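Troubleshooting log. The previous structure file for this entry was overwritten by mistake, so regenerating from the original sequence record. Sequence copied from the archived sheet and checked twice against the printout by T.R.
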Amino acid sequence: MKINNKSKGEIIIYKTKRGPKLDVKMEKQTVWLTQAQIGLLFDVERSVITKHIKNIFENGELKEKSNVQNLHIANSDKPVKFYSLDVVLSVGYRVNSKRATQFRIWATKTLKDHLAQGYTINEKRLLEAREKFSELQNVISFMREKAKHELLAGQEQEILNLLAYYLSSLAILEKYDKDKLALPRAGKTKYKLTYELALEVIKNIKAELVKKKQASDIFGHQSANKLEGILANLWQTFGGNELYKSFEEKAAHLLYLIIKDHPFIDGNKRIASFLFVYFLDKNNFLYRDNGEKKINDNALVALALLTAISDPKDKDTVIKIIVNLLK
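Regenerated output below.
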């Protein structure tokens, strides 16, 4: 028993080694068979099919109006009655024939498979929605707590803006309800930020800041050889696969690790922010389709400060915030 799609709304609904092969109509999201086709399907006389259909409608098992339609067919002057798939199924469970028995075995197995698969899919969707909601709750708690920190004094509005934008991810719950839940596509990294390039960028940044008297001579001096390790970490692999598969993850870890690992004597937050923006720009990831920055300058300041004052145990939360803001 197979169901194979064909063109022009027709399908083959029944196919065995010995036949029969039925070309049936498909309309209103169901298939329609004549009494003659149903009799051929179950290998019984048409009179038997007529009797069962009559009992199905008289017993109120199915409504005749919504399960019967008169259609014109080739080489026929009068319209012919066609019966819905629901009628075919009901007849199949009443008819006493070898082929009908084969049909019942197939139908029962198919229904069980669909129920099992449907449960698995819905369970997975529900789990994803719950995990997303839990993640959002953690982010809210994190931002609420950190907003009280003295370093974030005057940044309250930016914290609220970050939170409001992040909370737009709650739309995933609406998508779940509407059966449209989908994972966002991950961005791909086209431009690799090497250690040498990073040093050149930092050198140019320092020259500009010193000129404006916004940085001292120790700005950008490495306290240890940490920067090279941080950049190499973005492309590290395990079992032949990159640890951070998406561009968003690489960018988030670039900002986080430079701020938290303090590879420089002075200027870690500013250098991390500059390299973050540079990395986004070189990968054509800095702007949205409408021309706005994905993370504007004020938001980046607040994000850098949030990262700086965060507890190491909150790393996953901070990374998720940055990744979602870039989506």
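The mean pLDDT is 77. Archived copy saved in two places this time.
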